[in-house]
Design a protein that fits this description.
elongated, eight-stranded mixed beta sheet, Collagenase (Catalytic Domain), alpha/beta
Length: about 375
């Protein structure tokens, strides 16, 4: 450290991820560049120090955002940080609109709801967090950051489709909320991203194997060939949707993925958790279905000679008939694959539940740290 840097005032910013699952991944990618962003957008004459932290595995839900901010304020005081920012995957609301961020100037803390940022979450975090830090320091009249030396940009101008709401109870509190329609769509897509459907897809490997086994058996049954030829596109689509719906429902029921309201989880939050779980599983099973469909088409083209299929259907056939055959077999195999889902590892399948966060290796509770 040079002599000039030693004389520069230091401001310590705590960056807390709660739960230490998906938010911790965002924090790890973002923390290394935060000091540079703060120097660029807040004050270059300050020595910025960023410290990472993990929050609770199961963050408090009973008090919503205020409970998170209270916990964060205690964490900030214990760690002697100047300000603290919490990144969470909780889908929070205020007055029935998605809450994106909130500051508490008196407590020198702020939080950001990652799913409310939509799909481009890391990009939005880069835009939001420096402004939140600058706002907290300005509202707290921190002398190390001269108010006349910079003009804090409004977060609403950096992240599209949000607006600022001035708090009533605590002086200096600001909330940033999304629009009702666009914000809800962005929140749902952000929840699916935060829930990592790719992890759910990899977790359904045994289900996919069972479905392939069912499909292989069905390929040898000429009754299925005739059934696929007799059914129209509408019926085949209904069978497919019924198969996917049954699979998603079976996964939720068999592995107890349904979130129930209780003293700590409000009915609104439970609904959002369940919706996130349903969307994640729907996306994962849909991708599994496409993989199964492609594999079945390939197997049918290799195993079933055109002349044999023409003899069974009593008419000339083309590649479209193989697609229809794979369509009905994939739908039936999906229903059969639901039975195989009971063989999946419980921990792997439960990871698809939005409100479930396994304790990561090396994590210690804040009380024991």
């Amino acid at each position: 450290m040079t002599q000039v840097e030693q004389h520069r005032p230091e401001i310590v910013v705590g960056l807390v991820a709660t739960p230490p699952d998906y938010p911790a991944q965002v924090t790890a990618r973002f923390s290394a560049e935060l000091a540079g962003l703060l120097a660029q957008r807040v004050d270059a004459n300050v020595r910025w120090t960023v410290q990472e932290g993990w929050g609770e595995v199961a963050p408090r839900r009973d008090g919503g955002v205020e409970a998170l901010l209270d916990d964060l304020a205690r964490r900030r005081a214990d760690a002697r940080w100047d300000v603290a920012i919490c990144l969470t995957d909780l889908p929070l609301h205020t007055e029935r609109v998605p809450l994106i961020a909130q500051t508490a100037a008196r407590r020198r803390v702020a939080m950001v709801s990652l799913p409310a940022l939509g799909l481009r979450q890391l990009r939005a975090v880069r835009a939001a967090v420096p402004d939140l830090v600058g706002r907290l320091l300005t509202d707290a009249s921190d002398q190390r950051v001269p108010p006349a030396g910079w003009a804090p940009a409004e977060l609403a101008s950096r992240v599209p489709a949000i607006r600022r709401v001035v708090g009533q109870d605590d002086a200096g509190d600001l909330s940033y909320v999304a629009s009702r329609l666009t914000g809800r769509v962005r929140l749902l897509t952000g929840m699916v991203k935060a829930n990592r459907p790719g992890r759910a897809l990899l977790g359904l490997s045994k289900l996919l194997v069972a479905a392939f086994g069912t499909a292989a058996f069905a390929l040898t049954t000429n009754t299925i060939w005739q059934m696929g030829d007799a059914l129209g596109g509408l019926r085949l689509a209904v069978i497919m949707l019924l198969g996917l719906t049954a699979l998603v429902a079976w996964l939720i029921v068999a592995h107890d993925l349904w979130e129930k309201p209780d003293e700590e989880t409000s009915a609104e939050l439970a609904r959002m958790f369940n919706l996130g779980t349903i969307l994640t599983l729907t996306l994962a099973t849909a991708v599994s279905y496409l993989v199964l469909f492609a594999g079945t088409v390939l197997a049918a083209a290799l195993l079933i000679d055109t002349s044999v299929l023409e003899q069974t259907l009593q008419r000339p056939v083309d590649f479209t008939d193989y697609l229809i055959l794979a369509w009905i077999i994939s739908s039936l195999a999906t229903i059969g694959g639901a039975i195989g889902s009971g063989l999946e590892d419980e921990e792997t399948v439960r990871a698809a539940a939005y409100g479930y966060h396994p304790e990561p290796g090396g994590w210690r509770d804040e009380k024991d740290a």
